[in-house]
Amino acid sequence: MTSTFRPDVSSSPCMLGERNPDIIQQEPAPQSMALLNGLSRVFGIRLNDKQDTPDTRFLGDLTRLFYLQRVDAEAQMEKHDTPWANVYLIQYGIMRLFREAPSGKVAVHHFFTEGDMVWPVFGRSRTVRNTLCLTTVTPATVWVADFAAFRAAIQAHGEGLWPQFAMALTEELAELTSMREFRKHTMSAKERYQLLLEEYPELVKRVPDNQLASWLGVVPATFSRLKTGAKKY
């Protein structure tokens, strides 16, 4: 089907460059609103117009701790043998959590994407015995805060708030890790690859194959064969 362009019936967006008085110009939302919305999702708090409630004061105290950072792909955010310093709220991009053996072999444990909050879940990672590394996979825009200050701010708003928050993410990561280990022992590489395509289509599009191979528990050559085989069907 073909169409003919007619200026007399063009839609209003075509007049944006003319500053037409009939078009309402909307100011873009400030970056701080993206942070506020992200924190409200993480903590399960519904935003409203009321300014002086325990929830709004809580979110306000947290937002003051964060600053915006834009980083390139493969930027090292946290490294092993160093106490994990910060908490991250991802506005855009992907990060990977992994361990690296002295031999250079890498084991990818988890990928974090837009809207995820990343922080040192395990007590050991907050010490010099930390074995976890955190690196960006893609260029990323992240909100960053000092972890100790972040935890203290949550604790200041209620004795049970920190354990409640910490337990939710700890359980989620533990469940995902145990399920992935179970699949490694009970499913073939082909079956695991098929589940990867079904459950994480965005990661398949945006994450390099060698990193997906490590996460899946196969060598890059095997991953390449699985990818080639899947395209035949």
UniProtKB/TrEMBL annotation:
Q: Say which domain of life the source belongs to.
A: Bacteria
Output the InterPro entries linked to this UniProt entry: cNMP-bd_dom (IPR000595), cNMP-bd_dom_sf (IPR018490), RmlC-like_jellyroll (IPR014710)
Q: Could you tell me what this protein is called?
A: Crp/Fnr family transcriptional regulator
Its taxonomic placement starts with: Bacteria, Pseudomonadati, Pseudomonadota, Gammaproteobacteria, Pseudomonadales
